[in-house]
Amino acid sequence: MMQAYRYYVILFLYTLLYTIQSNELAKSNKLYQIKGELVFPSATVLDLKELFQNTRVTVGSRYGFLRSDGSFVVSNIPSGSFVLEVNCPKFEFPLVRIDINPKADRINARRLDLIKPNQISQDATLIYPLTLMPDRPKDYFEQRQPWNISSLLMNPMVLLLVVPAVLMFVLPKLMGSMDPGAQKDMEESMQKLQSGKDKMPEIADLFTNWFGGGQSGKEVRKALKKKRN
Amino acid sequence: MELSVLRYHTLCFIIFLFTGVWALYEEDIGKFDWHIRSIGPMKFSFFDQTHHTNRRVIISSELSVLASVTLRSGDLVWRRSLEEYRPIDTVLYRESTLITVSDNGKVVRRWDPESGHLQWEMSSEGEYETNESYINAYLNETNKIILLTSTKLKYYSVGGHLLIHKDLNMEMDGAVAFKMSVLKSSIILLLYNSNSKSVNWVSMLNSKVQENGIIQAFDNFREEHCLLVGMRSIVCLDKQTAKFYVATLEQSEFIVYTLIDLHIGPIDLTEESCIQISDHFSKVTPRFYFILSANRQFILELEFSDNSIRIVQSFSSDNSLLLFDDILENNIIVFSLTSDFTNLSVRCYDLYNEAYIDSLEITLAMNRFSGSPVRAVPYLFYKKGQSIGYRIIVSFQDGSFSLIQQTGRISWTRDEALSDIVSAKFITLSTTEENTIYSSVLLDSATSTNPVEGFYRMIYSQAIYVRDRILHIKQIILEPSIYNETLHEAIQPVQSAAIFVTRLGKVYCIDSKSGLFLWNLYLPHLTGYLSSIYEDTCIIKLINTSPESALVILGHSNSPDYCNGTVSIVVNPLTGEYMPNYPSCLSYNISQSVQLEEDGKVVAIALLDSDNTIHIFPDTYSLQPDTRLFMYTADAQTGEITGHHFSTNGDDTFKHVPTWSFILPRLREELVLFSVKNSAESIYANARVLSDRSVLYKYLNPHLTVLITESRNERKPCVYLYVLDGVSGRLIHQLYHSNARSTVPPILAENWIAYQIINLKEKRQEFIMLEMYEGKTVNNASTWTSFANINVLVLSRSFILPGDLYTMTVTSTNRGITPKDIILGFGNGQLFSLPKSFVEPKIPHELSKSPSPEPAKSPTPKIPLSYQRVINYNKSIDRLREILVAPAELESTCSVLAYGIDIFHTQSSPSKSFDKLAEDFGYTLIIGVLAVFLVFSLVGSSISVYRKTNQNWC
After folding, report:
1. Cβ separation B84–A61 shorter than 8 A
2. Mean pLDDT, chain B, as a whole number?
3. What does DSSP say about strands B740-741 and B805-810: parallel, antiparallel, or unpaired?
4. How far is A96 from chain B (nearest CA, A)?
5. Which residues 17-36 on chain A approach chain B with CB closer than 8 angstroms?
6. Taking all residues of chain A, what is their mean pLDDT, rounded to a whole number?
7. A35: distance to nearest CA of chain B, Å?
8. Which pLDDT tens digit goes with each residue over B526-571?
9. Higher per-residue pLDDT: A144 or B424
10. Which of B9, B763, B946 sits opposite A160 (nearest CB)?
11. Which residues of A touch B2 (CB under 8 A)?
12. Which residue range or ranges hold the ER membrane protein complex subunit 7 beta-sandwich domain (chain A) (predicted)?
């Protein structure tokens, strides 16, 4: 008996709840306006004119256009949850989640995190009417490097020229400072390596002999002169 | 040593030369791309007189776009695209006030005519959604906006305040408003009460009701065929009985006139026939006129004294348009525009004197066929010597509109048919005979498998090209008079062009490199060929018939009188001229088509009609003796996908065998999207190498089809995906997503399928990648058969899309070596090029036995959005509909064309331009460096010789 009574109470409550809910549903086709403002901190007046012409706020299939002060209105939005997106060619704005609560006649807004869209955190809440600032400018273009001496020096073509040239001067010096035993070993191994290429004129060899001790340039020239004579 | 250094240097050079760029440099804007911005066919137009030096025209289009163009050249000054599915109901303009009423009369916006900025927006906040059948608005002399809808009357001030809001439905007991007439502060409303079959009228002064009354309606009363003439009389036309019903507001019943009695008849009253009155016209004229348009047009005058109707003038041409202008004091001028498709004549009729003004008559030669005039807006003014001058904006059936000056000159024409494209396709044009050889050789070199042969052909084709160039230059030197722009165009070796078929039946051919219009055609009877799943589409095919190739366009006919079936247009792809010997109408409706190829060239199209009979187009084509065709058709209504097999029995007839059918649970699911794999796709690698150096073979079925269906139960939205083999009908894979919907056609390429779902629970869009593999062993490496029983391994991974996806496609290159990019088209009009490797599924640990896991390129589930990968940078495409891709000549690049209201074309290089020199390539630097090397080696060798001699002497 008691159980039957309880059952009726639950049934009654359920019907009551259902009627309230259906009333709510009937009410909820009321239309709302979402208001806000876009702030462009680093834009000149000329830029602003162009920006306002090309920027639009979308909520589903509804558009909001910018007034000359940057404010916008998106009209005729039914109650529910929506994503507000700012279509601006120059700046990226955050996505905003709008929740219109028909019961409280209230509009709540918060930054939308696409990875965890249903998580509500305190610092993501935005004040309504919205004031939105761009997150970052949209840089579509690759930056061309300005001319400077380091970029010239680091240019692969210049490196190609300079590094081997430097090596040509530095290596013989290193060879010269090595102890004679090691030098001899190295020469031997080099000769072994290049035994088949004897006929090839060796410029490094030439430089080694030229700068790495032995006869100096002047002496060579003198010797040559003598020979010609 | 020095030689090896040189060799090393040369190698390094070659490597460094081909360092292309990913994104564009800012100064390269417009170098590789072109962008066409459109408005749409004209609906409302006003002459903006606020600027005396820089005059403009304000245009509002059928596509709910509001724009301002210059009067001098027709160039766009500003453009605002309003909500796509909420059309502009009416536009009001006076001096610096520009008002649009849109979305069923719910949104009123005021714009600044100069800059296009919004000044204010008013909407029915707090009201409920209603549907209004009648919407009209006036801007009266006291600068108030009076907005009347079927159930509401609202007054707004031009400053953006709602002054008065009246709910007519409540006050008038179910009567619906259908007409309004405004004179200064007083207005008269007509309402129709369908219960009591009576017309209620209300006269108001400053929104206060002054008088009202009821007139008993007649039997065939239709609101849309009634006029309120001169704030006093109602004139209605009954088309069925060909009668006029006239009543003044004081009367309680209508007076009847038959058209015969008025000496108007007999005329044909069709659906389009109507009576109309000019807005200007109801102002302060002492006499009242209206127009009856049927197969002939009449100007009729209503005598107020006895409500009698008199014919003032009749105009008897089929393609004519009448319009009024009373801007001049004491006179009303009627413009009559008549077009016989080659000439457009404008005549002016003086209503008060009842005579034509001969001095204002002009006849213009139309240099192209545009159909008859649809709408026109005149602007009359006094010239210096007090003579009358005018200019008219005329819009034509083909969607174009022109500004016509009184001097008999067309100032400019805006071709707006391109704003609504039904179907588009890339084709390759070979301009001259030599170039045909060149392109075929080039094509052969690209497809040949032997590298030596390929290289030889490449060199051969280049030689042909160089020879042509020399011949051409010789021709210029010898006969410079012939040289002109077209010859210059003709020397381009292979020209890639885009063909567009628009909703209004206009066909365009645009050079895809430069964006130049090559030719256009207006075919008023052609509309989209109705496919059951997609929106309207047309078949566009280039067939290689000898001696020249032909472009075939097949579409649905919009007039059964012209063609009861399929309209076929066969033109020369270079000139747009009709080719003889082809039918212009096919008597059947097409349900599927397959191209027939010979030596890799399309030579004919096999068309399947609704009775499952095969027709070959062109019918002169003789079939190969053993032709076998596999086709399948999908019916969205019944949810049935059927496979067909056709084979010839030695003669020209096909034997039809239905091979398979796949039936969707029709009550549960609805077929929404359908995608077919491009079987001509070139695939380079047939396997993927894993990190443990084992090989995973791709499942490269060329006959794959993907069906996406949605649940019919609105409370439980679900997306189902089916992967089918088109030849055998085998179901390869299926899956479903609950709480989701899908709006973008999936893409199929190589061994993967990419599709989009809208996750309703999380309120975001997701991108899902499915990869199909055969496994670690290859099933049959030499030939593909759909009937082989392969267990397909499917790997999948889903990602979060950073925006609202409208459409997507995949890049394709000549030989398929370049890694593929997926081009995502977002709702904000941006095209984002996403490397496919970023969205690859992870290889499970069972497959790769490597100790370290497979590296994933994107560790986050959200697709990373770098703006340098937006290929159309800040040139967004409004209402993006589709993206087309075609391989370009170079392997690294492909042409990308995206269209919506705007059209954008660019060259995309998915993995940088590796086979192309960089744009900023320094020719002087490389020549300088080579010269230094040369000097260096020469000096070095001479020194070494010197040194050797020296050594020998010593």
Report:
1. yes
2. 82
3. unpaired
4. 12
5. 29-33
6. 75
7. 11
8. 776 555 455 557 788 888 876 778 899 888 887 878 888 888 889 9
9. B424
10. B9
11. 201, 203
12. 49-160
Q: Is A195 on the interface with B (CB under 8 A)?
A: no
Identify the CA nearest to A69 among candidates A47, A49, A96, A94. A49
The helix (H) or strand (E) run that includes residue B202 is strand B198-205
**Residue in B closest to A118 by C-alpha:** B762
| Chain B nearest C-alpha distance from A157 (Å) | 7
Interface test with B, best of A33, A83, A140, A144 (most B CBs within 10 A): A140
Domain that holds residue A90: 30-137
Predicted local distance difference test score (pLDDT) of residue B355: 84
Give the domain range for residue B939.
Answer: 2-18+918-953
Q: With cut-offs at 50, 70 and 90, classify the pLDDT of residue B449.
A: low
For B291-312, how does the pLDDT look when each residue is reduced to its tens digit (9 = 90+)?
A: 888 777 888 888 877 778 888 8
The answer to whether the Cβ–Cβ distance between A157 and B109 falls below 8 Å is no
Chain A residues near residue B800 by CB distance under 8 angstroms: 114-115
| A156 and A205 housed in the same domain | yes
Asked if the Cβ–Cβ distance from A89 to B948 is below 8 Å, we say no
pLDDT digits (tens, 9 = 90+) for A120-160: 777 778 888 889 988 888 888 887 766 677 766 777 767 77
pLDDT tops 60 at residue A224: no
Residue-wise pLDDT for B375-414, tens only, equals 888 888 877 777 788 889 999 888 899 999 888 888 999 9
How many domains does chain B divide into? 3
Report the range out of A191-200, B49-58, B476-485, B502-511 with the highest average pLDDT: B502-511
User: Percent of chain A, pLDDT > 90?
Assistant: 6
pLDDT for B591-636, tens place per residue? 888 888 887 788 888 888 888 888 888 888 878 777 888 888 888 7
Q: What's the structural domain count of chain A?
A: 2
| Residue B100 vs residue B459, higher pLDDT | B100
Residue B71 included in any domain: yes
In this structure, are B60 and B163 located in the same domain?
yes
- How far does the CA of residue B35 sit from the closest CA of chain A (Å)? 15
> B322 is written with which tokens?
């009448």
Min mean pLDDT across A199-208, B25-34, B575-584 is at A199-208
**Mean pLDDT calculated for residue range B35-50:** 88
From B169, B187, B215, give the residue that closes a domain. Answer: B169
In SS3 terms, B481-546 reads as CCCCHHHHHHCCCEEEEEEEEECCCEEEEEECCCCCEEEEEECCCEECECCCCCCCECEEEEECCC
Q: Find, in chain A, the residue whose alpha carbon is nearest to that of B762.
A: A117
Q: CA B630 → CA B529, B595, B726, B727, distances in Å?
A: 22, 11, 8, 6
> Quick one: average pLDDT of A211-221?
54
Instruction: Let me know if residue B126 belongs to a domain.
Output: yes
Question: Is residue A72 domain-shared with residue A158, that is, in the same domain?
Answer: no
Chain B: closest CA distance from residue A226 (Å): 11
Interface test with B, best of A32, A100, A157 (most B CBs within 10 A): A157
* DSSP code string of chain A: -HHHHHHHHHHHHHHHHHHHHHHHHHHTTBEEEEEEEE--TT--HHHHHHHHHH-EEEETTEEEEBBTTSEEEEEEEESEEEEEEEE-SSEE---EEEEEETTTTEEEEEE--SSSTT---GGGEEPSSEEE--SEE---EEPPPPP-HHHHHHSHHHHHHHHHHHHHHHHHHHHHHS-HHHHHHHHHHHHHHTGGGTTS--HHHHHHHHHSSSS-HHHHHHHHHHHH-
- Per the DSSP assignment, residues forming a β-bridge with B604 are B596
What's the pLDDT score for residue A152? 67
Q: What's residue B813's pLDDT? A: 87
Residues found in chain A: 229
Query: Using the beta-carbon criterion (under 8 Å), do A78 and B124 form an inter-chain contact?
Result: no
